[in-house]
Amino acid sequence: MNSNHRFHRYLRSRNLRDTAERRAIVDCIGSLEKRHFSADDLLAAFRGRGAAVSRATVYRTLDHLVRCGMVRRLALGRGHSVFESSLGRRHHEHLACLACGRVLEFSSRRIRIVLDRECRGKHFRSQGYDLQVLGSCEDCAGGPDPSRRGRG
After folding, report:
1. Which pairing describes strands 132-135 and 93-97: parallel, antiparallel, or unpaired?
2. 83 is in which domain, residue-wise?
3. pLDDT tens profile 74-113
4. Phi, psi torsion values for 10, nearest 5 degrees
5. Could you give phi then psi for residue 139, rounded to 5 degrees?
């Protein structure tokens, strides 16, 4: 099922209109490949094409896309968020720089094992997880982490 069809079904199930602007936003996100993007990035892409889509429509559509599971929101602090398409992507974690907004991705089998063990030990049935580490990237922190020096 393509992304526009999936989103159409989501909207219809909530008695919301499936507008040309919403479909254009879904298409634009699909063209961003596997990149993180902000609402402002989407607005700039539309302005670059000479298309008129309001800021409010972009934000509302992103909220709906998050709710229907097509897009993930990553909160970077101070009210700033970036998004990524979750369609066709393997689960991964994020390191997010609070200074510049850079987002690095990684995947860790060990983290999944620890979380599974914790859930089992607490008789908790997990339906998924989101791990995001907030901090400073190497550039914003002024170079490599000094606590890692001398380790090999």
Report:
1. parallel
2. 1-89
3. 887 777 888 988 877 778 888 988 888 888 889 999 999 9
4. -60, -50
5. -65, -45
**Residue reference for tokens 């993930």:** 72
**Surface-to-core class of residue 40, CB atoms within 10 Å of its CB (0-12 exposed, 13-18 middle, 19+ buried):** exposed
Tens digits of residue pLDDT in 39-82: 999 999 888 888 888 999 999 999 999 999 889 898 877 778 88
Six-digit token pair at 66? 């998050």
Rounded distance between C-alpha atoms, residue 71 and residue 66, angstroms: 5
Asked whether residue 64 falls in the same domain as residue 109, the answer is: no
Q: Does some domain include residue 61?
A: yes
The Cα–Cα gap between 105 and 67 comes to 22
Per DSSP, the three-state class of 71 is strand
Q: Is residue 103 part of a domain?
A: yes
Same domain, 74 and 108: no
Find how far residue 128's CA is from the centre of its chain. 15
